[in-house]
Amino acid sequence: MTLDIILDADPEWDSSTDWDDLARRAAAAAVAESAFPQFATGEAPTEISIRLGDDEEVRALNAEWRDKDKPTNVLSFPMADAAELAAPMTPPMLGDIILARGVCEAEAADKGIAVADHAAHLIAHGTLHLLGYDHHDDEEAADMEARETRALARLGIADPYAGEAR
Q: Is 163 exposed, middle or buried (0-12, 13-18, 19+ CB in 10 A)?
């Protein structure tokens, strides 16, 4: 496989879900919807590290790296810059993604969707961040949301933004 996913999951995450498979498919779908599909097609191998952690772990990272002392659903830590993504000399490590179990479960419950589907969305979202996408303004947010929606459709997951005011 050319898109190597290294997954580390706390045992509190639902053991009936194949998190390795879900993480690989969600990240690959997001990469395929990016400007860098070569990372999903085999033209340029790469790696992503994904951690399925707990709220406290994510809160500590959010406080340290974003000065926000609270848990959030997903954090992304890119390791490759735009030049490395566009013309990788060696297979880049795209970066790290971490999800907070409690926040993910609560958001899934609020939306009335499966935790696995919401986690797939957060992994796709985090993967797009690793590839340089962001949502600081309306145009960037619309582009990123469209890519997430297409990535999730590849997985048979409904549009997470349907019904939201954009």
A: exposed
